[in-house]
Design goal:
637 residues; alpha+beta; seven-stranded mixed β-sheet; binds guanosine-5'-triphosphate; binds magnesium ion
Length: 637
């Protein structure tokens, strides 16, 4: 209970620096752990891959150290370790001073956005005071312009133990004012090691970048696209119920084999994560770089623990020391989130040439980066507006915004609110108010055209109008467009599933009015010998017979008796009276009897009888018809 009461601060320290400058020896002196575990590392006396060691600084401050190789051939491993660290220890041997990989590693930790650092001048025992002063001056001068906040340099020696306590104290000071990473965010663990442990299954390790995950939870593994269950967790080497951001984390996973995973893969939870194949980014080129990058330049992209090849696209040349927008077409997928920093290295020779920040991990196909209105310096509201605006009515699913904006879900809600009335949240989708208004206005044209083409129709069916909404739009957005258009005083009206412009009445021009008149007369003359629509169309070539008939029906002058026949109202009333008279007299009658009585052929009689059945005038009894009213009155006989 006592230990729970005091909050323990945990953070990750990463070494950086030229080969043989004493990084691993320093880590061993601080932690007691020799991180050069491999036989080849021992034999060659150099670090090849990442090493990890816990470093308890006090009861309240627990650090973990990632030791990286300094050899220029293993910078890719250094990158996988440097990503996700909180504090950089820039190791410079007193007898050599700043060397090429000192510069390269310094550039990398700067490009990765690491905020805090401590320069450590090692091998103090090998130099005299004057020389040390010279090196300290060189280092201070070099770091003065750095974007990292550096502590004063600490001079150490692992042989005499000099400076080690001062370094511990400096680390404690830095730890005390490191900002904790938000825990209420999507969980992401870029994987730096994968191995199998008897009894635990597949174990992945890395530094948790954001969010938390608990034992028993499911994580998604990307780009594998596989779910796995977390069987157990270790944080900084100790069994834990929960993984938390900014800590060395090991997850034992059920449901995935060691051979399926590799460094560069990522474990995540929550929506919106996808393996990215194209990144829209802002890139900066180091001043020391020899050549500009331009469209078609092939580069190596290091993001998280992943390294993929990519081709630069859609950029005018970015010259050394300058920044610019660039689209990166990845040759294999990686997992990225807006705001992620990455390092780029040239394809050949392999050197660090720059880095950048992800602006959008999922740019729309065929979009032009320069026209997208996205940039590194803009506010979250401006970025959201640009992303939503270009998707018009399709909008963006709110679920995906934490990844697309690079903000915790809670912050996304606030950003949408800050955007105010410009953005609408509709059924889980954000769209621009402007897109909805524009579309409602466009539908006015659609309706006008419909009215022109169908002057006899009362309007456009709602179904057809919904289908006329341009672009793939989620149903809730289509609803909003129609609601906006049909609101009171809006540009159109919706009644009885039909949309029309205000004041629209089906109208006839004089020719159509004439034809309608002739049709009405024809129906009256036909009496019970009701012609089909097809027959009328042949009799009235060139007239919109069907539309005119339905117009007559709407006006009450005619009535459809089946799909192919319209009868004049008066004619039908007469038939009904005659039928009721006949059946009242006869009780029941077969079609043959009625045919004789009415002098009608079957062709004309049957449709009328079926109409009478449907209208509830008659009902069938065997072959014959009886009056429906009377049979109903007779009750349950
Ligand atoms: N005299 C002296 N030698 C040191 C000190 N620190 C490291 N060395 C020696 O320097 C050599 C290189 O040390 P490492 O710690 O392996 O260097 P490193 O920076 O980890 O090298 P890479 O990981 O290969 O880049 C070893 O022989 C160490 O014993 C020191 O403080 N004093
Ligand atoms: Mg080493």
């Amino acid at each position: 209970m006592g230990s729970d009461a005091r909050p323990v601060r945990r953070f990750v320290i990463g070494t950086a620096g030229h080969i043989d400058h004493g990084k691993t020896a320093l880590v061993k002196a601080l932690t007691g752990v020799d991180t050069d575990r491999w036989e080849e590392e021992k034999r060659r006396g150099i670090t090849i891959d990442l090493g990890f060691a816990p470093l308890p600084l006090s009861d309240e401050i627990q650090a973990s150290v990632v030791d990286v190789p300094g050899h220029e051939g293993f910078v890719r491993n250094m990158l996988a370790g440097a990503t996700g660290i909180d504090v950089a220890l820039l190791v410079i041997a007193a007898d050599e001073g700043i060397m090429p990989q000192t510069e390269e590693h310094l550039a990398i930790v700067e490009l990765l956005g690491i905020r805090r650092g401590i320069p450590v001048i090692t091998k103090h025992d090998l130099v005299d005071a004057d020389w040390l002063e010279l090196v300290e001056g060189e280092v201070a001068k070099r770091l003065a312009a750095s974007r990292i906040r550096w502590e004063p340099a600490v001079a150490t020696s692992v042989t005499t133990g000099a400076g080690l306590q001062a370094l511990r104290e400096a680390l404690g000071r830095v730890a005390a004012d490191l900002a904790e990473r938000p825990a209420d965010d999507l969980f992401r663990l870029p994987i730096d090691r994968v191995f199998a442990v008897a009894g635990a299954g597949t174990v992945v390790t890395g530094t948790t970048w954001s969010g938390t995950v608990a034992v028993g939870d499911a994580v998604r593994l990307l780009p594998l696209a596989r779910e796995a269950r977390v069987r157990s967790i270790e944080v900084h080497g100790q069994a834990a119920e929960r993984a938390v951001p900014g800590r060395r984390t090991a997850l034992a996973l059920v449901g995935v084999d060691k051979s399926e995973l590799a460094r560069g893969h990522v474990a995540v939870t929550g929506p919106g994560w996808e393996a990215a194949t194209v990144l829209d980014t802002a890139v900066e080129l180091l001043p020391s770089t020899r050549r500009p990058i331009a469209s078609r330049t092939r580069v190596r992209v290091h993001l998280g623990t992943a390294e993929v090849l990519a081709r630069v696209a859609q950029t005018p040349a970015i010259v050394p020391g300058e920044r610019g927008l660039a689209r990166l077409i990845l040759e294999s997928p990686l997992v990225a989130r807006a705001g992620d920093r990455f390092v780029i290295r040239s394809f050949s020779p392999v050197t660090t040439i720059g880095g950048g920040v992800v602006l959008d991990p999922f740019p729309p196909a065929r979009s032009r980066l320069r026209r997208r209105g996205i940039d590194a310096g803009q506010t979250a509201v401006a970025r959201l507006s640009a992303l939503v605006g270009e998707r018009r009515l399709e909008g963006i699913s709110i679920d995906t915004l934490p990844v697309r904006l690079g903000a915790p879900p809670r912050r996304v809600t606030a950003v949408i609110a800050e955007a105010g009335r410009d953005l609408l949240s509709l059924g889980g989708t954000v769209v621009q108010q402007h897109a909805v208004t524009t579309e409602a206005t466009r539908l006015v044209d659609v309706l006008r055209r419909h009215h022109e083409e169908h002057p006899l129709d009362p309007g456009m069916s709602l179904q057809a109008l919904r289908a006329a909404v341009g672009a793939p739009a989620p149903p809730a957005v289509v609803d909003a467009v129609l609601d906006l258009g049909a609101r009171s005083g809006g540009p159109f009206e919706i009644a009885a599933s039909v949309a029309r412009l205000p004041g629209w009445r089906p109208a006839l021009d004089s020719r159509a009015a004439d034809a309608r008149q002739k049709l009405a007369e024809r129906l009256a003359q036909a009496r019970w010998q009701i012609p089909t629509v097809g027959e009328l169309e042949r009799e009235f070539p060139g007239s919109p017979v069907r539309a005119l008939l339905s117009h007559l029906a709407r006006e009450g002058a005619a009535e459809p008796i089946d799909a192919e026949r319209y009868a004049a109202r008066g004619v039908l009333a007469e038939f009904r009276a005659a039928l009721e008279g006949a059946l009242g007299e006869l009780g029941s009658a077969t079609p043959a009897e009625l045919r004789d009585r009415f002098g009608l052929t079957r062709k004309y009689l049957i449709p009328l009888l079926e109409w009478a059945d449907r209208r509830g005038v008659t009902r069938r009894r065997g072959d014959a018809r009886v009056l429906a009213r009377l049979t109903a009155g007779k009750g349950g006989s």
